[in-house]
Design brief:
The protein is mainly β. The strands form 12 sheets. Strands 2, 38, 39, 41, 42 and 44 form a 6-stranded antiparallel β-sheet that branches. A 4-stranded antiparallel β-sheet has the order 1-45-40-43. The protein is elongated.
């Protein structure tokens, strides 16, 4: 007589009919950990912060939030650990980590088109050969030591090379910026008597650094000059920049309209024109950047930019436009993992790895089923090699392929009971999510959730009475429910019959409803313990052989 023995449990695959699933797979697998082939519950979720938002960032005990679902947080991994963000305020921001966690943001960048200083020689010019031509600029320095592009130059003036010049009109107030110092630069050209004013060509060299707020400065003659000003191309990020990301090579990247802007290496405030890229096949929607490659996800074809090599000239980075259209339909579904990019499209979840791509959910969902879960609302993150996807209607978790050449493991798909509004994976590979009540760490609580697993629809070779079953488990209380299905003649609707509904806390045989034969049945197992195996047979004696 037929009997069933399960020592390995799998997940769901909605693409397949319930009776066509592999015997170890399930119709329902919610809040269940299948990593060991057994049925185990996840731990409850641990509340870590009262803060909440539609975008979150977590770094150990640092919790940052924003009500903007497209806000972007990124950590600059240098000796001075900075956090940069876009979408948090009306402009990109930066702060050292310890202050960013208190949400004391500084504006990233500097004011543009700084007005020129006024330079005046107070003495009287004599008709001799001790004259020189002077011109001045200044730059702003913030409290982190970052330096702005120079101001417009002052009017060039004649002065004796042993006489002082007074500078006035230096800036004293820039709201929203945190300016600490002003650096003064001077271009000096010695003149022979009678040289024309327009014939000079000198470099601006560092004159002095003064505290911000000082409106006037006296340039004493015979000053020893410092290095040349090298910040002429340092344009700040515009207020409209989105998707601000640290790329791991010392550069920041962000989207500005239809262009990708990259910063000067190790200069997060400076975005020279030479590091701007455009002409994508589609409007850029999302930018994600890793140490070796960045992904520009558009409403048509994705693009890939290599980030590994040094780059200090215009257009030196290679951009590849993908040959297949994979338009992103959910901004928050996109995430990086091991150098690959994953995000939701109308056809399924796409995996981009360099110039190659594939839809990894084709073995799990038909296209109609994928559309039915509302993928345009998906929030996604990858933790421990599993993609967590949350939509308005579903919460999914499944193992992603290790490479573009592997198929997804269809037996790994399970569902979760949580319904977050934002998710984040920390550098410690811990998963955090936000609800209306706060931020929680997934699977980190002191208690256990209740898992639910309903096996495949088992089809027997003929009408058979399955009368006994047993579990191998850890002696926790487990709810086991067996349901048989019969069809009346000329009726299409199945009539369920409960063969057994019992709390089991041991590994002994248990009897089912006697004298009832069926062609189809399934089993529902739920609880907070670990189930190692499940057996069902036509008699207790048959179970004893197992």
């Amino acid at each position: 007589m037929p009997g069933i023995k399960l020592t390995n449990f799998g997940g769901i695959a909605p693409k397949y009919q319930a009776q066509n699933l592999h015997q170890a797979m399930a119709q329902v697998a919610e809040d269940v950990d299948l990593s060991r082939g057994t049925l185990r519950p996840w731990r409850t979720d641990k509340k870590v912060s009262e803060k909440t938002g539609k975008s979150i960032f977590v770094d150990k005990c640092c919790y940052l939030v924003s009500e903007n679902c497209k806000a972007s947080f990124s950590r600059i991994n240098t000796d001075c650990c900075f956090i940069v963000a876009s979408g948090v305020k009306a402009y990109p921001v930066i702060q050292k980590k310890q202050h960013a966690c208190e949400e004391k943001w500084n504006r990233l960048g500097f004011p543009i088109e700084l007005p020129p200083p006024n330079a005046e020689f107070l003495g009287e010019l004599s008709q001799d050969f001790n004259q020189e031509l002077r011109q001045y600029i200044y730059t702003l320095v913030d409290e982190f030591g970052f330096e702005s592009a120079p101001s417009l130059p002052s009017e060039a003036i004649y002065a004796h090379n042993d006489k002082a010049t007074i500078l006035s009109g230096l800036p004293t107030n820039f709201p929203t910026y945190h300016i600490a110092k002003v650096r003064l630069y001077c271009a000096v050209t010695p003149l022979d008597y009678g040289d024309a004013k327009a014939d000079y060509d000198a470099h601006f060299l560092l004159l002095d650094e003064i505290d911000f707020g000082t409106a006037n400065y006296i340039h004493q003659p015979h000053t020893t000059y410092g290095d040349a000003c090298i910040t002429e191309e340092y344009e700040p990020p515009p207020n409209t920049m989105t998707d601000l990301q640290y790329c791991g090579n010392g550069q920041l990247g962000g989207l500005v309209g239809t262009e990708l802007w990259l910063s000067e290496p190790l200069k997060p405030h400076a975005f020279p024109e030479a590091y701007r890229y455009g002409h994508f096949n589609g409007k850029p929607i999302r930018f994600l950047c890793g140490e070796r490659v960045g992904y520009i996800l558009t409403d048509e074809y994705p693009a890939i930019i290599e980030m590994e090599s040094p780059c200090q000239s215009q257009g030196c980075r290679t951009i590849s436009l993908h040959e297949e259209p994979h338009p992103i339909i959910s901004y928050q579904s996109a995430c990086l993992y091991n150098g690959a990019c994953f995000y939701a499209t109308k056809d399924g979840l796409v995996m981009l790895s360099g110039n190659q791509s594939k839809i990894v959910t084709t073995q799990l969902f038909t296209q109609d089923q994928w559309q039915a879960i509302a993928p345009w609302t998906m929030i996604g993150v990858i933790q421990d090699g599993y993609y967590f996807g949350f939509t308005e209607t579903h919460s999914l978790r499944f193992k992603i392929p290790d490479s573009i050449y592997e198929d997804v493991q269809i037996e790994s798909l399970t569902t979760l009971s949580i319904k977050p509004q934002a998710v984040y994976r920390s550098d410690q590979d811990e998963l955090y999510f936000a609800t209306e009540s706060g931020i929680y760490q997934w699977n980190a609580g002191d208690d256990w959730k209740t898992f639910k697993w309903i096996g495949r629809l088992n089809t027997l070779p003929g009408y058979t009475a399955m009368t006994a079953y047993k579990l191998q488990q850890d002696f926790a209380q487990t709810h086991v429910k067996h349901i048989a299905y019969k069809r009346h003649r000329n009726e299409m609707v199945r009539e369920p019959v409960i063969l057994g509904d019992k709390i089991v806390n041991d590994s002994r045989p248990h009897r089912l409803k006697g004298g009832y034969s069926t062609l189809q049945f399934d089993v529902e197992i739920s609880g907070k313990g670990e189930v190692l195996a499940y057996y069902i047979a036509t008699s207790v004696a048959e179970l004893g052989a197992e």
